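Deliverable D5.2: sample structural annotation.
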Amino acid sequence: MIEADVQQVQSGLTDYLRRVAAGETVVIHDHGHPVAELRAVAQRALTPRPIGLAKGTFDVPDDFNEPLPADVLDAFEGRGP
């Protein structure tokens, strides 16, 4: 694991990205406090999920596209009791 300050990462971003792609992890510090972790994206995240994985596990109700009832809509928008 590599630890670097924000300014170091800004000035050497290409180098840090190259190292991350090679498998290293970079913990980025701001004023001495860790604020972020830079690591490679997992391969599985790049593969699209197949369509229809949940087929047959639930039924979409006929009124799915209908407007919400007023009390539910008010709750979503922070109005009401």
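Annotation notes: The first strand starts at residue 2 and ends at 5. Helices lie at 6-11, 13-21, 43-46, 70-76.
The annotation will be released with the project's public dataset once the embargo ends.
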